Amino acid sequence: MKDVTGDSIVASNAGWTFSGEVAQHFDDHVSKSVPLYAAGHELICGLSDFFVGRDSVVYELGCSTGTLSFRLAERNKGKDGARFIGVDIEPEMVARAEQKRAELGVPNVSFVADDIFQAELEPADFIVAYYTVQFVRPAVRQALIDKIYAALNWGGCFVMFEKVRGPDARFQDMLTQMYTYDYKLGQGYNAEEIVSKARSLKGVLEPFSTQGNLDLLSRAGFQDVTTIMKYICFEGFVAIK
Ligand SMILES: C[S@@+](CC[C@H](N)C(=O)[O-])C[C@H]1O[C@@H](n2cnc3c(N)ncnc32)[C@H](O)[C@@H]1O
């Protein structure tokens, strides 16, 4: 059975997907569902000032319709030769990103429709995964962070924003109430849409705790890590190689 999860998106129990028609409604949906969505992009653009130089390669892994990739290119437009590459597994997302690219006319942004695990990554100075790693199966998540670490140049930066779990059951309960119910009701979603979305994400979006994410980064080799944003259960980590 398919349920309406808001913003004209339908998904079944444990069946959330970014494929098909979701790409058409994605920009509206993500900016309403993810707290501080645009502010997080702004922080990442600010961070890029420190790491992106002329001739840098920049990746956005899980770029969806390319919103952040375009913002990064705009922020760094004075740096001739820098290239911005968005990777997403869903061809419909990449098609939408390509359509925007044609409208904006930005030659140094490109998109690849591929699984992050299959995509060959060139040596890069700045790699971003903005609410993407949470959708990677926990069993292979470490292998992805290892791959990102290997692709970064020395001194390069990995920015990872994730939905995170609380450190114990009491905090997790508070976070769920404050985000899943209060925040989403405040964004105009109704109770049925909220429940349908939560049910659709079972087994698809699997958040780690803050400590679980720090452990992933540490095992990959990152020693210099800090949090740049935290709002309820949404956290942005910055890791420098
Ligand atoms: C929450 S969205 C990312 C939002 C986007 N970064 C932004 O700023 O608007 C997660 C994206 O990750 C993509 N994704 C999930 N698993 C992937 C994988 N293994 N390889 C590439 N992309 C993946 C999904 O298709 C989806 O578009």
Automatic annotation (TrEMBL):
<dbReference type="GO" id="GO:0032259">
    <property type="term" value="P:methylation"/>
</dbReference>
<protein>
    <submittedName>
        <fullName>Methyltransferase domain-containing protein</fullName>
    </submittedName>
</protein>
<keyword id="KW-0949">S-adenosyl-L-methionine</keyword>
<dbReference type="GO" id="GO:0008168">
    <property type="term" value="F:methyltransferase activity"/>
</dbReference>
<dbReference type="InterPro" id="IPR029063">
    <property type="entry name" value="SAM-dependent_MTases_sf"/>
</dbReference>
<dbReference type="Pfam" id="PF13649">
    <property type="entry name" value="Methyltransf_25"/>
</dbReference>
<keyword id="KW-0489">Methyltransferase</keyword>
<keyword id="KW-0808">Transferase</keyword>
<dbReference type="InterPro" id="IPR041698">
    <property type="entry name" value="Methyltransf_25"/>
</dbReference>
<feature type="domain" description="Methyltransferase">
    <location>
        <begin position="58"/>
        <end position="156"/>
    </location>
</feature>
<dbReference type="InterPro" id="IPR005271">
    <property type="entry name" value="CmoA"/>
</dbReference>
